[in-house]
Amino acid sequence: MAHLLLAEDEAVLRMLISDTLEDEGHVLDIACDGEEALQKIEKSDYDLVILDYMMPKKTGLDVLTAVRAMPSKKHLNILILSAKSQHAEQEKLRAAGADDFMPKPFSPMELARKVEDMLNG
Q1: pTM surpassing 0.85?
Q2: 86/67 Cα distance (integer angstroms)
Q3: What angle do CA 59, 69, 80 make, to 5 degrees?
Q4: pLDDT single digits (tens) 49-100
Q5: Which residues contact 101 (CB under 8 A, 6 or more apart)?
Q6: What is the rounded distance in angstroms from the CA atom of residue 102 to the CA atom of residue 109?
């Protein structure tokens, strides 16, 4: 069981992901935008953070950049979800410190496998 943060602004996708990962035995906190995600990251310790790239208030890239600047959170595992799946975009996210990237659309089970790989890798 891992403690995860899911930051996703699309309600249906947020529910689908959270239901899938909770069924896998993980404990999830939920954020609906980048600002809320950053506040939760500052206050809690997570095993993995899943960030949507395009969110209101702060993008996933904004949150990623802020987290990598925090000495106590610098090594936090971060997975970015995005409909922008171009190679250049993925490279930009990896250069900013993303540990992995998953293009949308994806199946919930693909995401569950990716999360397990990141937690165990």
Answers
A1: yes
A2: 24
A3: 35
A4: 999 999 999 999 999 999 999 999 989 999 999 988 788 888 889 999 999 9
A5: 79, 80, 82, 90, 93, 94
A6: 12
